[in-house]
Write a structure and sequence with these properties.
CATH superfamily of the largest domain: P-loop containing nucleotide triphosphate hydrolases
CATH architecture of the largest domain: 3-Layer(aba) Sandwich
Strand content: 15-25%
Structural class: alpha/beta
CATH class of the largest domain: Alpha Beta
Number of domains: 2
Number of strands: 13
Strand order of the largest sheet: 5-4-6-7-3-10-11-12-13
Radius of gyration: 21 Å
Shape: globular
CATH topology of the largest domain: Rossmann fold
Distance between the termini: 47 Å
Length: 322
Amino acid sequence: MGNKEEKEYKITDLPGVGPSTAEKLIAAGLDNLMSIAVCSIGVLVEEAGVSENVARKMIQASREMLDMGFETADTILEKRQSINKITTGSKNFDEALEGGFETGAITELYGEFGSGKTQVSHQIAVNVQLPSEQGGLDGKVIYIDTENTFRPERIVQMAKAHGLDPNTALKNIRVARAYNSDHQMLLAEKAEDLLKNKEENFRLLVVDSLTTHFRAEFIGRGTLSERQQKLNKHMHTLLKLADMYNVCVIVANQVMAKPNVMFGDPTQAIGGHIVGHASTFRIYLRKGKGGSRVARIVDSPNLPENEAMFFVTQDGLSDKDK
């Protein structure tokens, strides 16, 4: 949709964008028509120092240049042919996901401590590097670590088990430690600089975990509204990256127990409707019998509710305990 138009038009072709405004936009990472077309008026006003009226005209013009109007459903189906799947390493899990984790989407993994969220995140960070015939995308990884749970030793174990060179596998993963929620949000925005470089072929973005800093910094009901607004902005940044660059975004999320649930599982994900609505797929992970893990697909636009049992072994995700 946008490549042809982006070659013909530059941001300096937009109304109200002279050299100094263009410089400010580029410094803010808004260096192409698509990034402005999907931008909010408030962000443009803040970043480029233009009036609301000029910001509105810039967005309108970029959308017209990119022909971002209604399109027929068969065109959308055609575009979905570019969506790829990354294998989980478990046939049961892959079958439940109809092939694996999807690019162009956010997949939320939520569950209690020890349910396997970080293990799955590490595994996909290895599997995305596999060739396509083995269920990978020959891709690289951006990993935002908020809890200091990223373990290169684990990547080495999983890479060896899949026949990958461990050093190459480690070099293909860019890791950044986020120290607070603002830093986390900034890292997600900075990830776009890496994704723009098509030669690098980044196909996976992991945030583990999504809500740790937000929970720690916004305590009490009085701060809930502000927390949710920030979380909403963060999720939309991730959603934009997934959509614009056709990358698979995985967010690991913590849970809490709902005190008013009398029967059934009282576990629910942190972040409420904000995270739930922004996530394309939601997967609830829990411990099963005999050391197994159970992945339940809770929400998906095209998959039925389903459960898959798998094991976390030294070599990674597997259908057998070994």
